[in-house]
From TrEMBL:
This is FAD-binding domain-containing protein. Pfam families: FAD_binding_3. One of its GO terms (molecular function) is monooxygenase activity. InterPro entries: FAD-bd (IPR002938), FAD/NAD-bd_sf (IPR036188). It comes from Stachybotrys elegans. Its cofactor is FAD.
Length: 346
């Protein structure tokens, strides 16, 4: 397979390390994390990562699982197009609204997922030249500005650098505590893109100029029309057998610590280790292996769900003693540096 970092790094073709910057209104300088040989971070662009993961795998796209049957002999899945597949193990990596989970627990997603009381507005913007350079300087991959007095939290991130190396796609998310976000009468359900942008610009006007810029450069057409409702999932137990869950289907979490995908990979690797070499006819061995996997995965997943939910809480933002973590690393002081786009072109 192609080298993972080469194939997926969202900063390519720039020769810059993945870097997350964190700024506080009431503290000088910045902290954050950065890719180093001792503490590597790969910030992967989603489409490139999917392409890399697809290497030599004959994927059949557009197959939607409808029904699942399983017993001690094997598993059988029926798809929406009427086709079926049979096998020894079914791994449900079908995301937050998992149909495999629904089959396994006999409960629909709405009975299991927990609302995260946040109203979020999401924007996307293309940048070039000096505006792009200024965002890279704030955090090569992403940055946040934290203050307990703002009443909102935001995450500003690079999606990917364009092949020309002087322009890029950015996205941001601005969130306010709001338990009523699901109500059909909530203003976000009906707001236009311009109304959402105006709301964001009013809130962002409290920020220092350089942290406002990304919002100010976003056109109304760059505001996501759908209202994003955050939900997460903590499961206490899962039955062990031929149907197994991994990733968001087992432990969906908010993205504030950037760990959901990371834990999906850990799940996949741990499950593979458990299953490899098993006799597919030996149901006792399969049950034992899956029970061990479930136990570790659910405990690790639930902890990540709780940590991710609390990461953006008011208390957390005020707290100066607890160590902050992002991309699974403790943050450390991160000196600010000026960037010359030509010089960092690889
Ligand atoms: C805004 C945002 C930012 C994030 N940032 C980060 C980050 O920086 N770092 C990180 O580690 N994680 C991040 N995450 C989390 C990460 O995206 C998820 O944890 C990860 O994608 C979960 O992978 P998964 O395979 O379990 O589920 P998904 O990626 O949701 O994939 C599920 C797949 O199953 C398919 N599917 C669903 N139902 C069916 C069905 N019935 N039949 C067949 N197929 C079906 C879906 O189409 C989809 O392709 C972020 C998430 C969001 C929303």
């Amino acid at each position: 397979m192609e080298d993972l970092k080469q194939a997926t790094d969202h900063l390519q073709p720039l020769n810059l390390p993945a870097q997350m910057g964190i700024y506080f209104q009431d503290r000088p300088g910045r902290v954050g994390v950065e890719d180093t040989p001792d503490a590597p971070i790969i910030r992967a662009e989603r489409r490139r990562l999917r392409n890399w993961l697809s290497t030599n795998i004959p994927i059949q796209w557009g197959k939607k699982v409808n029904t699942i049957e399983h017993n001690d002999e094997g598993v059988s899945v029926t798809f929406e197009d009427g086709s079926t597949a049979k096998g020894d193990i079914l791994v449900g990596a079908d995301g937050i609204n998992s149909i495999v989970r629904q089959h396994l627990l006999q409960k629909p997603a709405k009975d299991l997922l927990k609302l995260v009381p946040l109203a979020a507005i999401v924007g996307e913007v293309a940048l070039e030249g000096d505006a792009f350079k200024r965002q890279l300087e704030l955090g090569h991959s992403a940055y946040v500005y934290m203050s307990p007095t703002l009443g909102f939290a935001n995450f500003n991130g690079l999606h990917e650098v364009n092949p020309d190396g002087v322009s890029a796609k950015y996205y941001w998310m601005l969130m306010q505590p709001d338990a009523s976000v699901e109500d059909s009468e909530h203003w976000l359900q009906k707001a236009t893109q311009q109304e959402k942008l105006d709301h964001v610009l009013k809130l962002a006007s409290k920020l220092p100029a350089r942290f406002r810029e990304l919002f100010e450069l976003t056109p109304a057409s760059g505001i996501k029309t759908e209202t994003h409702i955050w939900r997460d999932l903590e499961l206490e137990s899962l039955p062990a057998g031929r149907v197994v869950l991994l990733g968001d289907s087992a432990h969906a979490m908010t993205p504030f610590r950037g760990e959901g995908g990371y834990h999906s990979f850990i799940d996949a690797m741990k499950l593979s280790e458990k299953l490899v070499g098993l006799d597919s006819k030996d149901i006792d061995a399969i049950n034992a292996a899956v029970a061990e996997y479930n136990s570790e995965m659910l405990e690790r997943g639930a902890e990540a769900v709780r940590n991710s939910r609390n990461e953006n809480s008011d208390k957390r933002t005020r707290d100066t003693k607890t160590k902050l973590t992002t991309a699974n690393q403790l943050v450390r002081p991160l000196p600010e540096v000026e960037i010359d786009l030509k010089a960092v072109r690889s």
